[in-house]
Amino acid sequence: xxxxxxxxxxxxxxxxxxxxxxxxxxxxxxxxxxxxxxxxxxxxxxxxxxxxxxxxxxxxxxxxxxxxxxxxxxxxxxxxxxxxxxxxxxxxxxxxxxxxxxxxxxxxxxxxxxxxxxxxxxxxxxxxxxxxxxxxxxxxxxxxxxxxxxxxxxxxxxxxxxxxxxxxxxxxxxxxxxxxxxxxxxxxxxxxxxxxxxxxxxxxxxxxxxxxxxxxxxxxxxxxxxxxxxxxxxxxxxxxxxxxxxxxxxxxxxxxxxxxxxxxxxxxxxxxxxxxxxxxxxxxxxxxxxxxxxxxxxxxxxxxxxxxxxxxxxxxxxxxxxxxxxxxxxxxxxxxxxxxxxxxxxxxxxxxx
Length: 353
Fold this sequence. Notes:
This protein is mainly alpha-helical. The protein is built from 15 helices and no strands. Helix content is about 80%, strand content about 0%. The termini are far apart.
């Protein structure tokens, strides 16, 4: 079905998709039809932010469309949600698939919040540090210069350099304000828009210090998506294709595409994952055993949980080291600024004395 994007409604975010799928899972499990379930959700006051999307869904359901067709016609749902709904309609497991989708998007929402916190905190600390330094240089340093002038001395060396910087800053407030405005706009762009978030994840995958962390994040997202698609009964090639749509790391995406080629050539999904080196030898062995016992979806879920926990520990470790590092740097900078003027001032005062 052709997707007719509703331009007046924004595409659903991970948190919104989680709430919709979670409520659908409970209502479908109670034997309520998609049309009635959507009406029930619209009457819930806690779903105010979901009303535009639910109205779009309801419009399609009123025409007799299935939940997957209605979701596709809105243009607000990702392709893998639509595909899983379509498979669930064929197998009669809408409640189970909705629950799987809810779990997946809950993890995605939590991951996004964790990444935002990990990025926002150091940015705030850096901005505060620069603000303190700028105040020192632009407001405090001129006071010392007046003292030196009154004593008939001049500020030389490091203090002289800082004084020159102070004069530049005093005459460049408009430029500073413009720079802060640009940085604020970039922060909003990369944290609040889907395009910006995808570009930021690509940057993390390119930047050497964060490259391995970004790869693990995408492997975790791929594992979660594969658990979701394989447990819904989607064929391996289609599962890989749908899962590739959520990836931004070039290295992981290339491995997924290689897996697709191997599966299309007649290979098994487990063998393709092992041959591409997507996972370590330990996980590869688990995947091969799980494929023989028919528990591949469970193992993919286990791997996704492991990577999620590892990513969480990494971000916690980074955050715990940022504050003392920033405090130490700020203390050193302030100490250097003050010593650069106090020591010469003490020398001048001792000469006068």
